[in-house]
Amino acid sequence: MTNRAQQTFERLFGPEFGHGKPLARERLLAALEALGAPHANLPPVIHVAGTNGKGSAIAFMRAVAEAAGLKVHAFTKPHLLRLNERFLVAGETASDEALLAAAQRTHAIAPALTQFDAQVAAALLLFSGTPADVVLLETGMGGLHDSTNVVSTPALSVITPLGLDHQDALGGALTQIAAHKAGILKPRTPAIIARQPDEARAVIEACAERIGAPLHRQGVEWDAYASNGRLVVQTETRALDLPPPSLHGAHQIDNAGLACAALLQWRDFSDDVFAKGVAGARWPARLQPLTRGPFSAPIRALGGEVWIDGGHNAHAGIALSYALNDMKARRGGTNVAIVGLRKRKDALLFVAALARFAERIIAVPLAEDHVSVNEMAKAGYDLGREVETAPSLAAAMQNAAQFPAPRVLICGSFLLAAEALAAEGV
What whole-number distance in Å separates Cα of residue 96 and Cα of residue 374? Predict the structure, then answer.
């Protein structure tokens, strides 16, 4: 789906590059200097890298900061329905007019930038020109060479859980991916690290020691866990007893805990502020239930449920599968996963992750750049599981309606999640 802002960026800078996009941070830095160095004139920046959970962690940090009365800038990726969603300026989604002006100003200085680099430049222009208290800055891909890694002295570096994704650009081994993500660490800047696989943690620790970045690691200097229906966050100096996270899924315990642990390193917020933020955060297409519109109505009429999630790699697939299992244990029903994947995604690993607790899997095509449904069906065959195919999301929903009290999870791509949201009228 396109809008004025997206059309303008595409017209000026070409289509947004995929995961193999050129990593040319030096060219962006030169452009920023010519634009008046907006990257050096920002409120405190919290820079966030990782494979999964970046957007959720930012959503929790934003909610806590706003509960404290702070003004928040944020740059996130991807968007669902409109490019503007990526740009939060002092708590408000950027207008078409503001984005068009920033895009045109950037193009006048650096017409050869990639579209994503131009988006980063536009975000930094908007953030430097509007007062706020904090910038939440999400990497586009990786970290070391990422376009967002132009801020030399962030207030905090945050690394969410790492897994295999974007191997075409970041490397096929978890250690290679960890080296890219650890590239956002800065000397003397506190780095708050989610729980990691051993090999990834070792790479991050070695990088931090080499450059002198103080580490705050989950399971070592801090931790977060569910206890009696509450979220407990424990650091070396503080213990928070909070309501459960507003976002669904057991993995959101860690994401909310990471957000709280990070903010505890930055500001001394009250327990009430943390509680309000954790319970009030919103982030669409992260295990989001569809409960009111016409798209989900036929499934709901059968006593079923419809959920959407943009997760698209094996790490996310495992978290989603366990979420399905938890919901089935509480409420029964049949777990049905409707899956669409972009090209370059590993269909075998994603289907294998979902197949743990999804009783039925239906493969569908995306509007663009997608893994074929036959490839996903073959992945199922290789795993000894049948993967049905459907020509569209609507047809897959009709297939799902054949099962008793179906719990439908639409996942694998933000494109598919956006299609479901648009059909629901959200």
Answer: 40
